[in-house]
Amino acid sequence: MNIILLGPPGAGKGTQAQFLVEERGMVQLSTGDMLREAKSSGTEMGKKVAEVMDRGELVTDEIVIGLIREKLETTDAPGYIFDGFPRTLKQADALGDLLDEMGRKLDAVIELRVDDEALVGRIVNRAEQARAAGQPVRADDNEESLRTRLAAYYKMTSPLVGYYYAKGMYDRVEGMREMDEVRAQIAEKLDL
Ligand code: AMP
User: Tens digits of per-residue pLDDT, 101-153?
Assistant: First the structure.
């Protein structure tokens, strides 16, 4: 089974993807994680994307499509969870083509529906918790970058709702509930 988790920053995509990894042995493909890795290991590409990411803007389609292609070509998995990808219509088309090439298909696109005001609180919380635990705080977990990330979501990514709805693949869950309730809602959608 291959699925996309859709939702603005702080919606809980990463958390829910992790549950699916533990429960179903699926593999999480997070372009945000891949880009952060490139950034911290200081590769040419990492240097190129660092500022864009810190501001909360989207990196180019070419870069993220390239990252996903490489992962898909080198990882074998019973199923993939796309987390934070696709974020534009061009990426969505590219993902469709890549999966076709591999003889795989997309099974579900699940949007985590959240309330924007609460997102700001969640992100600030994530930064505070990281700080308290002595862990690095994401450079884009501040209010200004978060606003840019939310704007990018609504402008560039939310059209994917219509795109997948038209393909009969779109579903949504209530992302503001407790973590375990969201987890149960997703399980219910996937096990239909
Ligand atoms: P995330 O961890 O998914 O919130 O991603 C962190 C940042 O990485 C985003 O704000 C973008 O700058 C960049 N990024 C991650 N995934 C994508 C994508 N699919 N397309 C463009 N930029 C991305």
Answer: 999 999 999 999 999 888 888 888 889 999 999 999 989 988 899 989 999 99
For residue 153, report the phi and psi dihedrals to the nearest 5 degrees. Answer: -60, -50
In 3D, which of 72, 113, 56, 68 has the Cα closest to residue 92?
68
Tokens of 154: 């609504």
Instruction: Indicate yes or no: pTM above 0.90.
Output: yes
Let me know: does 140 contact 51? Beta carbons within 8 Å: no
- Residue among 31, 140, 149, 154 to mutate when testing ligand 1 (max atoms within 8 A of CB): 31
CA of 192 to the centre of ligand 1 (A): 30
**Amino acid found at 71:** K
Strand, coil or helix: what is 66?
helix
Q: What is the pLDDT of residues 175-186, one digit of tens each?
A: 999 999 999 999
Structure tokens given for 153: 């979501």
| Residue 59 Cα to ligand 1 middle (Å) | 7
